[in-house]
Fold this sequence. Notes:
Elements (H helix, E strand, L loop, with lengths): L6 H17 L9 E8 L2 E6 L13 E4 L5 E3 L8 H11 L3 E5 L2 H9 L5 E5 L16 E7 L5 H14 L5 E4 L3 E6 L2 H21 L1
Parallel strand pairs: 7-8
Antiparallel strand pairs: 1-2, 1-5, 2-3, 3-4, 5-9, 6-7, 8-9
Bound molecules: zinc ion (ZN).
Zinc ion (ZN) binds next to loops.
Amino acid sequence: MAEKIDSVTATVGLAAAGRDFYRRGWVLGTSGNFSAVLDLDPLRVLITRSGADKGALTEEDFLTVDSTGAVVEGTGRPSAETALHLAIVKATGAGSVMHTHSVSSTVLSQKQGKAKSIAITGYEMLKGLSGVQSHTHRESLPILENSQDYHALAGEVEKLLLRERGSHGFLLRAHGLYTWGVDAGEARRHAEILEFLVEVTRWQS
Ligand SMILES: [Zn+2]
């Protein structure tokens, strides 16, 4: 996490990403969700409420949850996938998490059969991922089986990310992409880079 940010700044950054991702077709029909860490001790995470239109997020579409996912500020239900955001924050120390339901991430993860990951290498755009210096980098994008039991899935996510320390994101099969960063700016860049890489990989496969 870069530095402590206030909820207004976080709301502006996440809403801007939502508008852009919606325009690109990555979060249609209220799909996807976005979060940002406001405080670490105790943990406070700003996250989109369930059912919000990601192309037109307002202040009312964001809630603050604690480390258990309980709402401590705002009204409405937090995203159904809040447990996954919290698992990523706890395992990676991320300051922001972004989740998309793009056509490419859905199709590519499904086309891989039962494969547990996709290796992506050789693309200049890999250098947009934090810490990557060359197109020769080999990015392993893990794939987890989709589930509606988000509590159990959150446990799998936490185990996966503690094991795969260098990961920048992962796919949920036939569902979408999760990525993160030290702040909303980096998480958004990682979403753009990984969506690009997933799309070119889909074309090649
Ligand atoms: Zn989702």
